[in-house]
UniProtKB/TrEMBL annotation:
Organism: Salibacterium qingdaonense
Name of the protein in question: DUF4349 domain-containing protein
Lineage: Bacteria, Bacillati, Bacillota, Bacilli, Bacillales
Region spans: Disordered: 23-74
Domain annotation DUF4349: ranges: 73-284
Protein origin, superkingdom: Bacteria
């Protein structure tokens, strides 16, 4: 009986010990799970914050890039002036001096004389863009009268950006074709790739040429200037009037007219003589007959 009671007590003790052990294990696991969940949540929140910060930074960089692009517009400036000047050579020399001072250059020029011996010339000059407005104002002081003035501006920013994008695409295509050419296994494939590569390279050269043109013309404005010299009011010289020569020509024309008229009259009478001679004889005979009859009656 005592042994049975002891065994029962021993079993109860063992059950209590096992229950306590399980509870401690459950508490430990729950604690670890709670700590892991908290750590994961913290890491997730940190990752989300980092991503938000990166996005904000990228957005700020994009905004800055767009602002820079908007502030650096590519505009091609051009203008034209028509000036009346007292003396052509002095005005042209003044223009050349001012162009050189502003770091510009003359592209082309021409000059011709009008009917009153006054000269008229034209110049096409290139001026740094930042000097364009100043140059146009200064040129008005060269002439005595500004007959015409106009300015134009063409924004080519979008075209230039498009050319840059197309150029990058073509250069990437060129690199790929070059790599394919090195890996080509037969002649036909090599020839086809070579033709495609040549076409791409030609397109690249065209794009670069257009970009260089836009860069140059946006950096330097073009101004076309026309100079009109005032006509002289002095009297013409005897040499310019050609009095003797003009008198001789008039005398010769008059004499030729008289000779031509006499020749015409002679031709008229000679040509009609077969008719005129009988008529003249008949008229003379008739007149003689009536005159004689009138005398007889008297």
């Amino acid at each position: 009986m005592v042994k049975k009671i002891g065994l029962v007590l021993l079993g109860v003790v063992l059950l209590l010990a096992s229950a306590c052990s399980n509870e401690e294990s459950s508490d430990s696991q729950a604690q670890r799970s709670s700590e892991g969940s908290a750590g994961g949540t913290a890491d997730t929140e940190q990752s989300t914050a980092d991503q938000a910060s990166d996005q904000a930074s990228n957005s700020a960089q994009e905004d800055t890039t767009q602002e820079d692009a908007a502030s650096e517009r590519m505009v091609i400036h051009s203008g034209s002036l028509t000036l009346e000047v007292e003396e052509y050579d002095a005005a042209r020399s003044d223009i050349e001096t001012r162009v050189n001072e502003m770091g510009g250059y003359i592209v082309e020029s021409s000059v011709q004389r009008s009917g009153d011996e006054a000269r008229e010339g034209s110049l096409s000059v290139r001026i740094p863009q930042e000097q364009f407005s100043t140059f146009m104002t200064d040129m008005e002081g060269v002439g005595t009268t500004v007959l015409d003035r106009s300015t134009q501006g063409e924004d080519v920013t979008e075209e230039y950006v498009d050319l840059e994008s197309r150029l990058r695409s073509k250069e990437t295509q060129e690199e790929r074709l070059t790599a394919f050419m090195e890996e080509a296994g037969n002649t036909d494939a090599l020839l086809q790739i070579s033709e495609d590569l040549s076409a791409v390279q030609e397109e690249i050269e065209k794009l670069k040429g257009r970009m260089n043109y836009l860069e140059n013309h946006s950096a330097n404005a073009t101004v076309d200037i026309t100079l009109q010299e005032r006509g002289s009011s002095s009297l013409q010289s005897g040499e310019d009037l050609n009095t003797w020569e003009r008198s001789t020509q008039l005398f010769t024309r008059t004499l030729n007219g008289i000779v031509s008229a006499a020749s015409g009259i002679a031709v008229f009478f000679v040509g009609l003589s077969p008719v005129l001679v009988p008529m003249l004889l008949l008229a003379a005979g008739t007149a003689f007959y009536y005159r004689k009859k009138r005398k007889h009656e008297e």
